[in-house]
Design a protein that fits this description.
- The chain is of the alpha+beta class.
- Helices cover about 10% and strands about 25% of the residues.
- Strands 1, 2, 3, 4 and 5 form a five-stranded antiparallel beta sheet that branches.
- Strand 2 and strand 3 form a beta hairpin.
- The radius of gyration is 15 Å and the shape is globular.
Length: about 190
Amino acid sequence: MIPAGFMYKEPIFAPAWVGAPEGARLHSLSGCISHYFTDYIRYWQHNGFWLFDSPEVLDQVAAKAQTNASHFDLLYFEVAETQFDEARSSWLPVTPDPSFPTSVRRPSHSTLLGHDIVCFSGGTSPECSPITCCGLGSTVALNQAALLETEARAREALESGLCNETEPGPFRIVSVSLVRLGDPPAA
């Protein structure tokens, strides 16, 4: 896996239609359901994976946006070295957007929560996560973080065509790790 970066995400419980276990706290990379801490792209401090190289850079952007970071979960993401092109049914290399420097500092401590599948049709910023945004959790087992347990299970899901006809690919497998929990989500 390639270190991709950090993000503050809104702590929420997965809606029932996602198909996650009851009481699951949603930790998808996608900002569709669990929102990002702000419209961060306008600050132009993200890296080539359109995330942040360190929590310190993330905190600088949160301060500029006048956002209280303690209200958000701090997550760390790594991306698989290949992405799945559903049109060709093949795996292609993943590289960061060369327009932005990327020098991710791995966290000194974190807890792996699981693996997400995220579409990158624009080739830059993360888009939808078909397993949560399209409610595929009812057809594939999700854990308490509303994620797939293993990278192998994510690969199987993609190769089986589970995400075809949901969102435009290519699809990247992203590991999601918790660095710090934010304030408890509203029930």
